[in-house]
Amino acid sequence: MKQSRMFIPTLREVPAEAEIASHQLLLRAGFIRQLVSGVYTYLPLGYRVLRKIEQIVREEMNRAGAQELLMPAIQPAELWKETGRWDAYGPELMRLKDRHDRDFVLGPTHEEVITSLVRDHINTYKKLPLNLYQIQTKYRDEVRPRFGVLRSREFIMKDAYSFDVDREGLDKSFQAMYEAYQHIFTRCGVDFRAVEADAGAIGGSDTYEFMVLSDVGEDTIAYCRECSYSANLEKAEVRVKETGTQEGVEDPLPLEKVHTPDARTVEQIRDFFNISEQQIIKSLMYKVDEQYVLALVRGDHELNDLKLKNLFGGNVIEMATDRDVQTLMGTPTGFMGPVDVNRDKIKVVADHAVKYMVNAVTGANEQDYHYQNVNVERDFTVDQYADIRNITEKDQCPKCGGEIAFARGIEVGHVFKLGTKYSEAMGAKFLDENGKEQVMIMGCYGIGISRTMQAVAEQRHDEDGIQWPWTVAPFHIHLIPVNVKKDIQRETAEQLYQKLQDEGYEVLFDDRAERAGVKFKDSDLIGIPIRITIGGKIEEGLVEVKLRHNGEVYEIPVEELLTRLNKIVADLI
């Protein structure tokens, strides 16, 4: 493609709305443009990258035995009501009505639609297993779209759904998809990790997120330095360590009520009593569906509300309001505690670490008062102990007991074992070999296509621009004559442009009558893997070949270019 004819609106200044490097570079290099918050146009360069990623996904999905189809983006509300997600999904679900006042949604995912399709056409074990996938635009009304297409309201996604006769079949389908994802992200040229994760609104078990490692990732990964364990922070298990009593703490002391004016936060309580945060019981009230729960964690720990929700098998979890706290606990928020709780209305759940606290400090359920020397069982009881907090780097690996460390990651893929969550609710059944009716066993497998594009740019860039890997780059070669007004440079460039294309290379030919500095800056910004420059040394029969990812430069005789180029490319792929 000749650059003079291609729509590449590059920008010299960093757009104000772009917070992270990949967002800035995709805007500046002319890959995307924002229409409204969270909604983007993919310009020609960006669309070429998307198509490359899609092709990799298609090849690996097809190789794994999946079949491509395309489902509607608009879905009737009735399907979502069958599974209960019409109410449970939350405000991110984009809802609309047609002219007959019928409810529809713009699909954020397609479990209901695919299950409806398969239940109507598959009725025997002989037609299973089956794996169907699509690449399509999805819609989610994000409360705060940010970071370009990493968190947007409209995005391109590959979603696949497997149907099997039993759990063993699901295990095989799941493993095939897991391995396909390994191949996909390896081919996309990113450093990634598959981590255990929570299934969220989709549901299911044995879920893994595929994370591109990046300091700007919105997800935290907890991993073991000594074994292969890794998990999303919201999912990471905390190894139960029975410590008996806190180090340095003597026998239980008498309970004492202390006036603590304006000491609400953990930090304020710590300073008031001159104690460590480990000696504080933090009380947090939540509403899980219709059940009120008082959750107790140590002062230096952070409650994990997803673990709490999953503990109760809930659909919706939310912090209790100040009014709820005042009504149920008789105190303003900030002075709650587990002593003398109304157990008919409130369940008390504590993290395992609370069980071994001695002479702790906690709220007295009275404004400006706290209890000192609080001890479990003597002063209050707990309905259930459970892992309800986030893991920390001071915890041990739940698998091997090794050292835990944290990293940041961008989620680009997710695989789920759905089981019968949707097939049971929607009646997707088949007759087994004995003629008995059985429920289909499902799996679900998603990849964010547009998100992957930006994740690549986030992980592979420098201060001058993007460094696209060969497999997903918009073009393979950027061909630049320094001065198109000089006949020998222009004519050589025209000849090489044709020869390179004949060899199968995708070439962006910068035939613009621009200054060399402008061309080189645009080239670095766009990030095509190889730049071939035809400048003054063409008089000596030499062209310059520069690799974008490491800056290596070669001066190569024109007659040897194709041979040498093939060797260079072989090392890049």
Please summarize what this structure is.
The protein is an alpha+beta fold and 573 residues long. It folds into 3 domains: 3-7 and 32-237 and 406-458, Bira Bifunctional Protein, Domain 2 (BirA Bifunctional Protein, domain 2), CATH 3.30.930; 256-386, YbaK/aminoacyl-tRNA synthetase-associated domain (YbaK protein, Alpha-Beta Complex); 470-572, Rossmann fold (3-Layer(aba) Sandwich), CATH 3.40.50.
Descriptive notes:
Strands 3, 7, 8, 9, 10, 11, 12, 21 and 24 form a nine-stranded mixed beta sheet that branches. This protein has a five-stranded mixed beta sheet with strand order 16-14-15-17-20. A five-stranded mixed beta sheet has the order 28-27-29-30-31, with helices on both faces. Helix 1 crosses helix 11 and helix 2 crosses helix 11. The longest helix has 21 residues. About 1% of the residues have low confidence. The chain is of the alpha+beta class and 573 residues long. 26% of the residues lie in helices and 29% in strands. It folds into three domains: 264 residues, Bira Bifunctional Protein, Domain 2 (BirA Bifunctional Protein, domain 2, 2-Layer Sandwich); 131 residues, Alpha-Beta Complex (YbaK protein), CATH 3.90.960; 103 residues, Rossmann fold, CATH 3.40.50. It is globular and about 95 Å long.
